[in-house]
Amino acid sequence: MRIAYVGSHEPMTERGTPWTTESAWGATLELLGHEVRRIDEASTSWPERVQLAEGADLFLITSTWGYEERQPRAEGFRAIRYLNDRGLPTAMVHLDKWFGLGNREHQIQDSPQFKVRWCFTADGDSSHLFEAEGIRHHWLPPGVYRPECVDGTPRDEYRSDVAFIGNTDYAHAEHAEHRGSMLDALRYTFGHRVAFWPRPGESGPWGWAYNDLLASVRVIVGDSWQGARRYISNRCFEVVGRGGFIVHPAVPGLVDMLPEGMGVAYFPPGDWDAMLAAIQYWIDDDDARAEACAKGQQFVRDNHSYSNRMTEMLGVMEAEGAWA
C-alpha cells in the first residue's frame, strides 16, 4: 500500500531510531511492507499535500497544534473535502486528548484533521463524544516502536532509585493539581533518591538514551488522567517495552492490556500511600523486578508495539470498506 503521511517527520537518530511518534509510525508502516511518502507538516501547504497524495492508497495525518495553525484552515477543509470526494481513504491518528481540555477542545471543530473519514486516537473514553460531532472514531491505544524494545546500558549519569519521566510543570490546568500532588509525594518521601526527566531546559532523553535511562533506574513512576478508564499516555508501554519497570495508576483499560507483574505494578489512582509502598517494594527486590521486566518487555514487544497498533488501524479501515 502507498501511504501519504502528513506529520512532524523528524530525521532518524544516528542509530536509526525515530525522534517523533510520527517518525515511529511511518517507520512501522514500512516495516509492515507499505510505502510511506513522508509529508512534513512544518514545510508544506495544503495544496502541496494534495499534490503529494496523488497516486496514494491512503492519506494519513497526525497534525500538531502550532504547525497546523500556520496554514489557513479554510484551505485545509477544502483539501480534505477534495480528497474525500475523490474516494481516497483519509485518516488521522493521534495520541492526544481533546474533550475535557479547555485549551484544546475547540480544535474538534477548528482542525482540518478531524474532517477525515477515519479518526483514531488514544482517548477511548470519548468515542461517544466524537460520534456526537459526526466523527467516525476508533480507540487506538499507544504503544512503542518495536525495534526499540531492547535493553539499554546502565549509565552513571542516569542512576537513581526512582524517576519520573514527563512534564513537572503540567500544561493542562484540569490535571495540574493532581500531577503536582503526586510529584510532591515523591519528593518528600525519596528526596535525592528520585530524579525527574527531562531536566530543566532540556528535552528527552530520546532514542537509545531513553533505554539507557530505564536500565539505570530501579523504578519509574507513571501518571494518568484523572478518572480515565480508556485513556492512557504512551509512557507505560514505552517504559516496559524498553526494559524498564513502572509503578502506574490502575487505569482499567491499561490493566486489561498489561497485567500486573508484566514490568508494571498498579496502585489506586490518587492513593499516594499505595503508590509509595509499591515503589519501595519493587526497589527492594532486584531479582523479582528483573524477572518482571523481562516478562513485560517480551509481552509488550509481542502485543503492544506500534506494529500491532498500525496493523489494527489498517484492519479497522479495511473492515469498514476503505478499499472495497
For the CA atoms, what is the radius of gyration?
20 Å
Tally of DSSP β-strands: 11
Q: Decide which structural class fits the backbone.
A: alpha/beta
* Residues in helices, as a percent range: 25-40%
Please summarize the sheet with the most strands. Answer: 6 strands, parallel
Portion in strands: 15-25%
CATH topology of the largest domain: Rossmann fold
Low-confidence stretches: none
**Quick one: CATH class of the largest domain?**
Alpha Beta
Total tally of structural domains: 2
Question: Helix and strand string, N-terminal first?
Answer: EHEHEHEHEHEEHEHEHEHEHHH
Strand order of the largest sheet: 2-1-3-4-5-6
CATH architecture of the largest domain: 3-Layer(aba) Sandwich
Rough shape? Answer: globular
**Mean pLDDT score:** 91
Q: How many H/I helical runs? A: 12
- Roughly how many Å apart are the termini? 14 Å
Describe the structure.
The chain is α/β, with parallel strands linked by helices and 324 residues long. It has two domains: 2-143 and 305-319, Rossmann fold (3-Layer(aba) Sandwich), CATH 3.40.50; 147-303, Rossmann fold. Helix content is 39%, strand content 16%. The protein has twelve helices and eleven strands. The protein has helices spanning 21-31, 46-52, 73-85, 107-110, 127-132, 173-190, 207-216, 235-241, 252-257, 272-284, 286-303, 306-319, and strands at 2-7, 35-40, 58-61, 90-94, 118-121, 137-139, 160-165, 194-197, 217-221, 246-249, 264-267. A six-stranded parallel sheet has the order 2-1-3-4-5-6, sandwiched between helices. A five-stranded parallel sheet has the order 8-7-9-10-11, with helices on both faces. The chain is globular, with a radius of gyration of 20 Å. The two termini are 14 Å apart.
